[in-house]
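Weekly structure sync, notes
Attendees: PL (lead), two postdocs, one rotation student
Agenda item 3: pending single-chain targets
PL asked that the sequence for the first pending target be pasted directly into the notes so everyone works from the same version. It is reproduced below exactly as submitted, 210 residues in total.
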Amino acid sequence: MNAQTKRIILAGPAGDIEVAVDQPVAGAQLSGTAIICHPHPLFGGTMDNKVVQTLARAFVQCGWSAVRFNFRGVGASAGAHDEGRGETEDLLTVVQQLAPQGPLALAGFSFGSFIMNQAVPHLWPARPISHLIYVGAAAGRFLSTELPPELRERTLVVHGEHDETVALSAVMDWARPQVLPVTVLPGGSHFFHGQLQVLKNLVIRQLLSP
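Predicted structure, written out during the meeting:
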Protein backbone atom coordinates (compact mmCIF):
# COMPACT_ATOMS: atom_id res chain seq x y z
CA MET A 1 0.00 0.00 0.00
CA ASN A 2 2.91 2.31 0.73
CA ALA A 3 6.65 2.20 1.28
CA GLN A 4 6.12 1.45 4.96
CA THR A 5 3.95 -1.64 4.36
CA LYS A 6 5.48 -4.57 6.20
CA ARG A 7 5.13 -7.94 4.50
CA ILE A 8 5.49 -11.04 6.64
CA ILE A 9 4.80 -14.77 6.50
CA LEU A 10 2.80 -16.54 9.21
CA ALA A 11 2.52 -20.27 9.82
CA GLY A 12 -1.03 -21.35 9.01
CA PRO A 13 -3.04 -24.58 8.96
CA ALA A 14 -2.31 -25.07 5.23
CA GLY A 15 1.25 -23.69 5.36
CA ASP A 16 2.50 -20.15 4.82
CA ILE A 17 0.09 -17.20 5.03
CA GLU A 18 1.27 -14.04 3.26
CA VAL A 19 0.44 -10.91 5.27
CA ALA A 20 0.76 -7.14 4.76
CA VAL A 21 0.67 -4.82 7.78
CA ASP A 22 0.26 -1.04 7.73
CA GLN A 23 0.69 1.02 10.88
CA PRO A 24 -0.49 4.52 11.86
CA VAL A 25 2.10 7.30 11.86
CA ALA A 26 4.80 7.02 14.48
CA GLY A 27 3.72 8.36 17.84
CA ALA A 28 -0.02 7.97 17.17
CA GLN A 29 -2.09 6.22 19.81
CA LEU A 30 -2.97 2.75 18.54
CA SER A 31 -6.74 2.10 18.43
CA GLY A 32 -6.43 -1.64 17.86
CA THR A 33 -5.90 -4.17 15.09
CA ALA A 34 -8.10 -4.50 12.00
CA ILE A 35 -8.04 -7.69 9.91
CA ILE A 36 -9.27 -7.19 6.34
CA CYS A 37 -10.41 -10.04 4.06
CA HIS A 38 -10.15 -9.92 0.27
CA PRO A 39 -12.62 -10.96 -2.48
CA HIS A 40 -12.97 -14.38 -4.11
CA PRO A 41 -9.61 -16.03 -4.93
CA LEU A 42 -10.97 -17.83 -7.99
CA PHE A 43 -11.91 -14.49 -9.58
CA GLY A 44 -8.64 -12.67 -9.02
CA GLY A 45 -9.19 -11.55 -5.44
CA THR A 46 -6.04 -10.73 -3.45
CA MET A 47 -5.03 -8.63 -0.46
CA ASP A 48 -3.86 -5.95 -2.89
CA ASN A 49 -7.36 -5.40 -4.29
CA LYS A 50 -8.10 -1.65 -4.42
CA VAL A 51 -11.18 -1.87 -2.20
CA VAL A 52 -9.21 -3.86 0.40
CA GLN A 53 -6.44 -1.26 0.28
CA THR A 54 -9.02 1.52 0.67
CA LEU A 55 -10.33 -0.18 3.81
CA ALA A 56 -6.77 -0.46 5.13
CA ARG A 57 -6.15 3.25 4.54
CA ALA A 58 -9.32 4.16 6.41
CA PHE A 59 -8.29 2.09 9.42
CA VAL A 60 -4.75 3.44 9.45
CA GLN A 61 -6.04 7.02 9.27
CA CYS A 62 -8.12 6.29 12.39
CA GLY A 63 -5.17 4.90 14.33
CA TRP A 64 -5.66 1.19 13.67
CA SER A 65 -3.02 -1.32 12.64
CA ALA A 66 -4.37 -2.65 9.31
CA VAL A 67 -3.65 -6.30 8.51
CA ARG A 68 -4.36 -7.73 5.06
CA PHE A 69 -3.59 -11.33 4.14
CA ASN A 70 -3.86 -13.65 1.17
CA PHE A 71 -6.16 -16.63 1.55
CA ARG A 72 -4.67 -20.07 0.96
CA GLY A 73 -3.55 -20.59 -2.64
CA VAL A 74 -3.24 -16.84 -3.34
CA GLY A 75 0.10 -15.09 -3.84
CA ALA A 76 2.69 -16.54 -1.48
CA SER A 77 0.08 -18.26 0.71
CA ALA A 78 0.27 -22.05 0.58
CA GLY A 79 -2.61 -24.43 -0.01
CA ALA A 80 -5.62 -24.36 -2.31
CA HIS A 81 -9.05 -22.72 -2.32
CA ASP A 82 -11.32 -24.44 0.20
CA GLU A 83 -14.74 -22.84 -0.47
CA GLY A 84 -14.66 -20.86 2.75
CA ARG A 85 -13.82 -23.52 5.30
CA GLY A 86 -10.04 -23.26 5.18
CA GLU A 87 -10.19 -19.54 4.52
CA THR A 88 -12.05 -19.08 7.80
CA GLU A 89 -9.28 -21.04 9.52
CA ASP A 90 -6.75 -18.71 7.88
CA LEU A 91 -8.53 -15.65 9.26
CA LEU A 92 -8.73 -17.11 12.76
CA THR A 93 -5.03 -17.93 12.60
CA VAL A 94 -4.16 -14.36 11.65
CA VAL A 95 -6.28 -13.04 14.53
CA GLN A 96 -4.64 -15.46 16.96
CA GLN A 97 -1.11 -14.54 15.92
CA LEU A 98 -1.37 -10.80 15.22
CA ALA A 99 -4.31 -9.68 17.38
CA PRO A 100 -4.46 -12.06 20.36
CA GLN A 101 -5.71 -9.29 22.63
CA GLY A 102 -6.80 -5.67 22.56
CA PRO A 103 -9.45 -4.01 20.38
CA LEU A 104 -10.24 -6.00 17.23
CA ALA A 105 -12.04 -4.96 14.04
CA LEU A 106 -12.92 -7.17 11.09
CA ALA A 107 -13.61 -6.00 7.56
CA GLY A 108 -14.38 -7.90 4.39
CA PHE A 109 -15.04 -7.15 0.75
CA SER A 110 -17.34 -9.47 -1.25
CA PHE A 111 -16.27 -13.09 -0.55
CA GLY A 112 -14.12 -11.66 2.24
CA SER A 113 -17.25 -10.49 4.03
CA PHE A 114 -18.51 -14.08 4.02
CA ILE A 115 -15.28 -15.33 5.58
CA MET A 116 -15.40 -12.58 8.19
CA ASN A 117 -19.00 -13.50 8.99
CA GLN A 118 -18.08 -17.18 9.31
CA ALA A 119 -15.37 -16.31 11.84
CA VAL A 120 -17.59 -14.23 14.14
CA PRO A 121 -19.16 -17.19 16.01
CA HIS A 122 -15.66 -18.56 16.69
CA LEU A 123 -14.58 -15.28 18.26
CA TRP A 124 -17.62 -13.66 19.88
CA PRO A 125 -18.33 -13.25 22.75
CA ALA A 126 -15.07 -14.65 24.17
CA ARG A 127 -13.13 -12.26 21.93
CA PRO A 128 -14.58 -8.72 21.91
CA ILE A 129 -15.08 -7.18 18.45
CA SER A 130 -15.15 -3.40 18.18
CA HIS A 131 -16.24 -3.05 14.53
CA LEU A 132 -17.51 -5.16 11.64
CA ILE A 133 -17.32 -3.67 8.14
CA TYR A 134 -19.15 -5.40 5.25
CA VAL A 135 -18.45 -4.00 1.78
CA GLY A 136 -20.14 -5.48 -1.28
CA ALA A 137 -21.35 -8.24 1.05
CA ALA A 138 -21.62 -11.65 -0.56
CA ALA A 139 -25.26 -12.15 0.36
CA GLY A 140 -27.44 -14.72 -1.33
CA ARG A 141 -24.94 -17.29 -2.56
CA PHE A 142 -22.66 -17.16 0.49
CA LEU A 143 -23.73 -14.88 3.30
CA SER A 144 -26.64 -16.18 5.34
CA THR A 145 -25.72 -16.38 9.05
CA GLU A 146 -27.13 -13.56 11.15
CA LEU A 147 -25.04 -11.48 13.51
CA PRO A 148 -25.39 -11.59 17.30
CA PRO A 149 -27.72 -8.71 18.29
CA GLU A 150 -24.99 -7.13 20.43
CA LEU A 151 -22.75 -6.68 17.39
CA ARG A 152 -25.27 -5.06 15.05
CA GLU A 153 -24.79 -1.53 16.36
CA ARG A 154 -21.05 -1.97 15.76
CA THR A 155 -21.58 -2.97 12.14
CA LEU A 156 -21.36 -1.01 8.89
CA VAL A 157 -22.78 -2.50 5.68
CA VAL A 158 -21.98 -0.62 2.46
CA HIS A 159 -23.33 -1.70 -0.94
CA GLY A 160 -23.47 -0.24 -4.42
CA GLU A 161 -26.91 0.51 -5.83
CA HIS A 162 -26.02 -1.13 -9.15
CA ASP A 163 -23.73 -3.89 -7.86
CA GLU A 164 -23.45 -6.26 -10.82
CA THR A 165 -22.06 -9.16 -8.76
CA VAL A 166 -24.28 -9.19 -5.66
CA ALA A 167 -27.77 -7.74 -6.07
CA LEU A 168 -28.70 -5.08 -3.54
CA SER A 169 -31.96 -6.97 -2.97
CA ALA A 170 -29.98 -10.01 -1.71
CA VAL A 171 -28.18 -7.85 0.85
CA MET A 172 -31.48 -6.36 1.97
CA ASP A 173 -32.95 -9.86 2.37
CA TRP A 174 -30.03 -10.75 4.67
CA ALA A 175 -30.15 -7.48 6.61
CA ARG A 176 -33.95 -7.16 6.97
CA PRO A 177 -34.57 -9.85 9.63
CA GLN A 178 -31.72 -8.35 11.67
CA VAL A 179 -33.00 -4.79 11.29
CA LEU A 180 -29.42 -4.11 10.17
CA PRO A 181 -29.00 -0.76 8.35
CA VAL A 182 -27.48 -0.85 4.86
CA THR A 183 -25.69 2.20 3.45
CA VAL A 184 -26.31 2.33 -0.31
CA LEU A 185 -23.99 4.27 -2.62
CA PRO A 186 -26.19 5.66 -5.42
CA GLY A 187 -24.97 4.41 -8.81
CA GLY A 188 -22.28 2.33 -7.12
CA SER A 189 -20.86 -0.82 -8.72
CA HIS A 190 -19.41 -3.89 -7.03
CA PHE A 191 -15.91 -2.42 -7.13
CA PHE A 192 -17.05 1.12 -6.29
CA HIS A 193 -15.45 2.64 -9.40
CA GLY A 194 -15.01 6.36 -8.84
CA GLN A 195 -16.41 6.08 -5.31
CA LEU A 196 -13.50 4.73 -3.27
CA GLN A 197 -13.05 8.05 -1.46
CA VAL A 198 -16.72 8.03 -0.49
CA LEU A 199 -16.33 4.46 0.76
CA LYS A 200 -13.25 5.43 2.77
CA ASN A 201 -15.08 8.37 4.34
CA LEU A 202 -18.01 6.15 5.37
CA VAL A 203 -15.65 3.72 7.10
CA ILE A 204 -13.80 6.55 8.86
CA ARG A 205 -17.11 7.97 10.08
CA GLN A 206 -18.04 4.55 11.49
CA LEU A 207 -14.69 4.12 13.22
CA LEU A 208 -14.81 7.58 14.79
CA SER A 209 -18.41 7.38 15.94
CA PRO A 210 -18.89 7.24 19.73
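Discussion points:
- Strands lie at 6-12, 15-22, 32-37, 64-69, 104-109, 131-135, 155-160, 183-185.
- The chain has six helices and eight strands.
Action: rotation student to compare against the earlier draft before next sync.
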